[in-house]
Amino acid sequence: MNKTLTTLSAAALILAATGCTTGTEEGSDFPSTAGSPAASSAASGTAGSPTASPVALAEGFPSNLIPVMEGSDLLSSTVDRSGATLTAVLVESSDAPAAEILAFYDAKLVAQGFTAAEAAPGSPASRDYVRTGSGEPETVNITTVAKDGGKATVTVGASVLAETVK
């Protein structure tokens, strides 16, 4: 389980770093996903400026499991179904403080049967969630990173059994 949480945390941080770019493929109005882990997943998007068009959730994204926090800006999302496992990542930008962001996801995930670990102190603020059932443990990781008191980049990554997502 620790390996799963470590892998999910690392993937979330990588996607947060790559999901915050505004690059587009030459000659295209769409964000470039070439060379990124999201390139082979369902739709993903990136918004980089106040004039950028809104980004939609990736097709099949489990928004009941991982909702977009009200008042935040969606930067990107990916979803991948491999066999019995569903992996989803959401990257958003928020003016809310880390404690408020974690409280929002605490309420949503605990209501779905996840158990929250204590938040790690410092920056980035991060919390892991685990749900156990008849199969493999399911995990979710929330990481918030704020630079110089500006907007926080929030990355939510989940690895769950596909059958548990509605």
Mean pLDDT score: 74
| Sheet having the most strands | 6 strands, antiparallel
Total count of helical runs of at least 4 residues: 2
Oligomer: single chain
**CA-based shape:** globular
Q: What is the spatial order of strands in the main beta sheet?
A: 1-2-6-5-4-3
Low-confidence stretches: 1-51
Number of strands: 6
Helix proportion range: 10-25%
Work out the radius of gyration: 15 Å
Strand content: 25-35%
Helix/strand-derived class? alpha+beta
Distance between the termini: 24 Å
Order of helices and strands: HEEHEEEE
List the SSEs and their pairings.
Blueprint: H1 2-18, E1 73-82, E2 85-94, H2 98-110, E3 115-116, E4 125-131, E5 138-146, E6 152-161
Antiparallel strand pairs: 1-2, 2-6, 3-4, 4-5, 5-6
Provide a descriptive summary of the structure in words.
The protein is α+β, with helices and mostly antiparallel strands and 166 residues long. 18% of the residues lie in helices and 29% in strands. It is built from two helices and six strands; from the N terminus they run H-E-E-H-E-E-E-E. The chain is globular and about 45 Å long. The two termini are 24 Å apart.
Structural features:
166 residues, alpha+beta, six-stranded antiparallel β-sheet, globular, disordered N terminus
Give a quick rundown of the structure.
The protein is of the alpha+beta class and 166 residues long. It has two helices and six strands; from the N terminus they run H-E-E-H-E-E-E-E.
